[in-house]
Design a protein that fits this description.
It contains six helices and no strands. By secondary structure, the chain is mainly alpha-helical. α2 packs parallel to α4 (79-97). The termini are far apart. It is 76% helix and 0% strand.
């Protein structure tokens, strides 16, 4: 039976993370703004999952988070789902194909993912109106990308230090 082999803790963790994203989008996105610059936590989560777990989970998280964003703002239903699924796949391909040990590279990937997300989204949303698109990219997306990638680099740094400490406490860390 296939349901016996299902790891329920991964499913529960995924549902909890998706619940936290919906809570963030509905309650906490406004207080975390800095001078009208928004933190894109859903995109940050998609890139994080893609970079740490690979393409399959990046695609799944991208699809589910994009669908949740589309449900909360259904004006272009399916557009966020499509874009975030592609971004989850692209972030997952970086896991095995690039050397991403320095945190700055991960921050750069977060920044580029946010710019690509906004470029595709606002290109379609504006009806291919390039002056409007360039205004949004230069005055909103770049600053939001810097803010989101800064928070992402901080989270990657904390995650890396926490994993090293746990590994050292378990006796598996062997310094050279």
């Amino acid at each position: 039976m296939f349901w016996i082999r299902i790891d329920y803790s991964k499913i529960l963790r995924g549902v909890l993370i998706l619940f936290l994203v919906v809570t963030f989008l509905s309650l906490l996105s406004e207080p975390l703004q800095v001078a009208n610059i928004k933190l894109d936590l859903p995109l940050l989560l998609i890139v994080y999952v893609g970079l740490t777990r690979g393409t399959k989970e990046g695609i799944v998280y991208g699809f589910l988070i994009g669908l949740l964003v589309d449900i909360l703002n259904p004006s272009f239903l399916g557009l966020n789902t499509f874009i975030k699924t592609i971004l989850g796949y692209l972030a997952g391909t970086f896991k095995d194909n690039l050397f991403l040990e320095p945190i700055y590279y991960k921050g750069l990937i977060i920044f580029l993912a946010l710019i690509l997300n906004d470029l595709i989204y606002y290109l379609i949303r504006s009806g291919f109106d390039l002056p409007v698109l360039l205004g949004i990219i230069f005055f909103s997306s770049i600053l939001s990308g810097i803010y989101t990638s800064g928070v992402g680099m901080l989270l990657f740094f904390i995650n890396q230090r926490f994993k090293l400490r746990i590994a050292f406490e378990n006796g598996t860390f062997k310094p050279e």
